[in-house]
Amino acid sequence: MSTQVARVEEKLFQNRYLVDQGKPHIVVQPHTTPSKNLLAMTKICPAGCYEQTASGQVEITPDGCLECGTCRVLCEPQGDIVWNYPRGGYGVLFKFG
Amino acid sequence: MIEEKFDAIVIGAGMAGNAAAYTMASRGLNVLQLERGEYAGSKNVQGGILYADMLEKIIPDFREEAPLERHLIEQRFWMMTDRSHTGMHYRSDDFNEERPNRYTIIRSQFDRWFNKQVQAQGAIVISETTVTELVSDAYGKVIGVRTDRSGGTVFADVVVLAEGVNGLLGARAGLRPTPKPDHVALAVKEMHFLPRETLEARFNLHGDEGVVIEAAGTISKGMTGMGFVYTNKESISVGFGCLVSDFAENEETPYGMLENFKSHPSIAPLIEGSEVKEYAAHLIPEGGFKTIPELFGDGWVVVGDAAQLNNAIHREGSNLAMTSGRLAGEAIFQVKSRKDPMTKQNLALYKKLLDDSFVMKDLKKYKDMPALLHTQAHNFFLDYPTLVSKAMENFLRVDGTPKIEKEKASVRAFRQKRSLTGLVGDAWRLARAWR
């Protein structure tokens, strides 16, 4: 059984979001080389929010965030990221949950 | 935001928060409940199975109105390799009882209903409001909360933290640690819709009967994790989860693991032709008894997932949440009725009630299981499923080989993979952790 190539964008497309424009609720702290855990997020974020840029840093676009907290558990204690919940009413809106 | 001071503020409108708010409001306490979602349930994710008994203790006649999907008459446990599954099924007509024991539910619908019952008991519920921090007095007693609304500070005698597994408030206030990567599992889930008749034919169901499949084995690639398939009225919840620490180490994508699970030859035919309408992710507290934080203090208690109250072995989360919420509500009501202050000493009653309940007794029973499953993940999730599958195939495939030789081959395979000491050791460790 080979790992299926899954496009997470197609999955997120099913969901409802109310994005708080210009107010990202998760911020990656400036760095030159990403930590091991921050780098892992480019693979394990269930919404595929984390990406490594051409220059090697890890960036986040939290628009599709599912607010699960995986990156918080993995990266917040070392100070790699700053994690908050979106403002009330914003973010993912589960129809089923 | 609101000038008056409340008897209690409940943060969150999930199972634990709703249970706590309902219990207190129905006993006449002045309760404010704050929810960051658009409505109660819009941020909540669960597999989701509801255990009737725990809700019955809060709302005895919930079956008359609650949005329930299917009552469960069959459970399948599947041990999987990439191409096979060895299953244990239990199906009983006794589960077709007048007051069924377990149901599948859809959380955003269920929580919305539950929260309406809370409001009917007189609690004030304000949604679309994120609580940003706890407010304490000079002595460190929690006296209220600050929210993201303008002028959004509200006060109460006690704050019930029902903020979920990823609750920030308790951690920020230093009341409990942020969960560790090996104490939480990340699960992803899709909602697959099918015509009701198709679904019922595929799963051999009539009316509102439902089936649950829990599957573990090589599908988690040696990580501690499992997949599930739950039948709803006209949809199937399909999910997959592994410990966050395992995901981080193996760098597998959660959605890739879910796709793998969905394409397994035992799963694919069940969901074939379905329309996917939502994709969700959620953390599940898996650390068990040893990771339960301090549950109460001056002016606060913590309930549900935020307190790591989840029984991973029996896959019970929401019923521990409901029970802890109810008991916290009862304890607060008792302290209040005596006109006593909400001090740490007085709120210890909540812990006492919880210790006397199944919640702590069950979690204590399995206190060694999380660590065992984690450290022995390779054996339990890769080697044994492969060996069992091979033994089953040996047993069933008729090819002229004498049965005694087949039996010997199966035993040999087990002993080669895991020495006799290893096998006995694993059995012993499992039995001890289970006891």
UniProtKB/TrEMBL annotation, chain A:
<dbReference type="GO" id="GO:0005506">
    <property type="term" value="F:iron ion binding"/>
</dbReference>
<keyword id="KW-0249">Electron transport</keyword>
<comment type="function">
    <text>Could be a 3Fe-4S cluster-containing protein.</text>
</comment>
<comment type="similarity">
    <text>To ferredoxins from P.putida and C.tartarivorum, ferredoxin I from A.vinelandii, ferredoxin II from D.desulfuricans.</text>
</comment>
<dbReference type="InterPro" id="IPR017896">
    <property type="entry name" value="4Fe4S_Fe-S-bd"/>
</dbReference>
<dbReference type="InterPro" id="IPR012206">
    <property type="entry name" value="Fd_FixX"/>
</dbReference>
<dbReference type="Pfam" id="PF05187">
    <property type="entry name" value="Fer4_ETF_QO"/>
</dbReference>
<dbReference type="InterPro" id="IPR007859">
    <property type="entry name" value="ETF-QO/FixX_C"/>
</dbReference>
<keyword id="KW-0479">Metal-binding</keyword>
<keyword id="KW-0535">Nitrogen fixation</keyword>
<feature type="domain" description="4Fe-4S ferredoxin-type">
    <location>
        <begin position="56"/>
        <end position="86"/>
    </location>
</feature>
<protein>
    <recommendedName>
        <fullName>Ferredoxin-like protein</fullName>
    </recommendedName>
</protein>
<dbReference type="InterPro" id="IPR017900">
    <property type="entry name" value="4Fe4S_Fe_S_CS"/>
</dbReference>
<keyword id="KW-0411">Iron-sulfur</keyword>
<keyword id="KW-0408">Iron</keyword>
<keyword id="KW-0813">Transport</keyword>
<dbReference type="GO" id="GO:0051536">
    <property type="term" value="F:iron-sulfur cluster binding"/>
</dbReference>
UniProtKB/TrEMBL annotation, chain B:
<feature type="domain" description="FAD dependent oxidoreductase">
    <location>
        <begin position="7"/>
        <end position="75"/>
    </location>
</feature>
<keyword id="KW-0560">Oxidoreductase</keyword>
<dbReference type="Pfam" id="PF26311">
    <property type="entry name" value="ETF-QO_FixC_C"/>
</dbReference>
<keyword id="KW-0274">FAD</keyword>
<dbReference type="InterPro" id="IPR039651">
    <property type="entry name" value="FixC-like"/>
</dbReference>
<feature type="domain" description="FixC-like C-terminal">
    <location>
        <begin position="369"/>
        <end position="435"/>
    </location>
</feature>
<keyword id="KW-0285">Flavoprotein</keyword>
<dbReference type="GO" id="GO:0016491">
    <property type="term" value="F:oxidoreductase activity"/>
</dbReference>
<dbReference type="InterPro" id="IPR006076">
    <property type="entry name" value="FAD-dep_OxRdtase"/>
</dbReference>
<dbReference type="GO" id="GO:0071949">
    <property type="term" value="F:FAD binding"/>
</dbReference>
<comment type="function">
    <text>Could be required for the formation of a functional nitrogenase Fe protein. Probably accepts electrons from FixA/FixB and reduces a quinone.</text>
</comment>
<dbReference type="InterPro" id="IPR036188">
    <property type="entry name" value="FAD/NAD-bd_sf"/>
</dbReference>
<dbReference type="Pfam" id="PF01266">
    <property type="entry name" value="DAO"/>
</dbReference>
<dbReference type="InterPro" id="IPR059103">
    <property type="entry name" value="FixC-like_C"/>
</dbReference>
<comment type="similarity">
    <text>Belongs to the ETF-QO/FixC family.</text>
</comment>
<protein>
    <recommendedName>
        <fullName>Protein FixC</fullName>
    </recommendedName>
</protein>
<comment type="function">
    <text>Part of an electron transfer system.</text>
</comment>
